[in-house]
Write a structure and sequence with these properties.
Blueprint: H1 7-10, E1 13-18, E2 36-37, E3 40-41, H2 42-51, E4 56-63, H3 68-76, E5 87-92, H4 97-106, E6 114-117, H5 127-138, E7 143-149, E8 156-157, E9 171-173, E10 181-183, E11 187-190, H6 191-200, H7 212-219, E12 224-227, H8 238-255
Parallel strand pairs: 1-4, 1-6, 4-5, 7-12
Antiparallel strand pairs: 2-3, 6-11, 7-10, 7-11, 8-9
The protein binds cytidine-5'-triphosphate (CTP) and the ligand C[C@](O)(CO)[C@H](O)COP(=O)(O)O.
Family: Belongs to the IspD/TarI cytidylyltransferase family. IspD subfamily.
Site (Transition state stabilizer): 25, 32
InterPro entries: IspD, IspD/TarI, IspD/TarI_cytidylyltransf_bact, ISPD_synthase_CS, Nucleotide-diphossugar_trans
Length: 257
């Protein structure tokens, strides 16, 4: 666990965890955040990952719109202990990730100045990555994103409507891979910057903003990257569950996690 964040900043940093998605790409079953990894709900892993940072005083979990009570009950069964003892709030979410984050931000107390936004679907992010994001915000960056270089080459295609799935798609370009990064969460923000971005672009809900830093970019504010971590991958498809179980098994074997 990092001790980089001084105690004085602890009271001003909060994490918002959007956890209101269905997990359609994971296949049928409970909402994704409530599914178990090594016997513990994915959301609990994500909450612990945020609370593991000494800088994080409050974690706001954004639950499915009709599931806030169920999520509160679930989290009560996994109390935070020791270094992880942050305050926990649960609020109902919305129809899109952007709307869910906006509802989470609305629940933050007025004295919070630094906000992390972290997908429940990235349950295994290491605390050193969390602390690196927080440290960069505290050093003055208004928006900080953990990111990794790509391993696949990426092709660009033209926007198409009505094409059948699996139909061959014409390629229109190949962006230079060395200039691309795959971005993760937690993304960290100066609270006023993130509030302004969500307020200004609320009307654009569902129109292509796939992360919060993207809204800050649209504001014209600078966004910087810090190194991400391969264990911060997003559990999206069934194979990702296999990888997550393998990571947890390796952690147990290495250090009794
Ligand atoms: N209306 C929504 C949609 C998504 N999310 C959250 O945003 C994060 C990233 O979304 P994603 O991985 O796409 O999750 P789902 O939307 O659940 O997945 P899918 O698109 O496969 O249904 C997840 O923690 C998810 O719970 C949310 O809080 N509210
Ligand atoms: C925020 C994010 O995790 C950054 O990679 C990602 O954009 C979320 O996308 P999703 O389609 O909602 O999973």
């Amino acid at each position: 666990m990092s001790d980089r964040a001084p105690a004085v900043t602890r009271s001003r940093t909060a994490a918002v965890i959007p956890a209101a998605g269905r997990g359609v790409r994971l296949g049928p079953g409970a909402p994704k955040a409530l599914r178990a990894l090594s016997g513990t709900p994915m959301l609990v892993h994500a909450v612990r990952a945020m609370a593991a940072s000494r800088a994080v005083r409050l974690v706001v979990v954004v639950a499915p719109p009709d599931g806030a009570e169920e999520v509160r009950t679930l989290l009560d069964a996994y109390p935070l202990t020791g270094h992880d003892r942050a305050e926990l709030l649960v609020v109902p979410g919305g129809e899109t990730r952007q709307e869910s984050v906006r509802l989470g931000l609305a629940a933050l107390p007025g004295d919070i100045t630094t906000v992390l936004v972290h997908d429940a679907a990235r349950p295994l992010v290491p605390v050193d990555t969390v602390d690196a994001v927080i440290a960069a915000v505290h050093d003055g960056a208004p928006a900080v994103v953990p990111a990794l270089p790509l391993t696949d080459t990426v092709k660009q295609v033209a926007p198409r409507t009505g094409a059948a799935a699996g139909e061959p798609e014409p390629v229109v370009g190949t962006p230079e891979r060395a200039l691309l990064r795959a971005v993760q969460t937690p993304q960290g923000f100066d609270r006023r910057t993130l509030d302004a971005a969500h307020a200004k672009f609320a009307a654009a809900e569902g129109e292509g903003a796939t992360d919060d830093a993207g809204l800050v970019e649209r504001l014209g504010s600078p966004v910087v990257l810090v190194p991400g971590h391969e264990e911060a991958f997003k559990v999206t498809r069934p194979l990702d569950l296999v990888l997550a179980e393998a990571v947890l098994a390796r952690r147990r074997a290495n250090d009794g996690f």
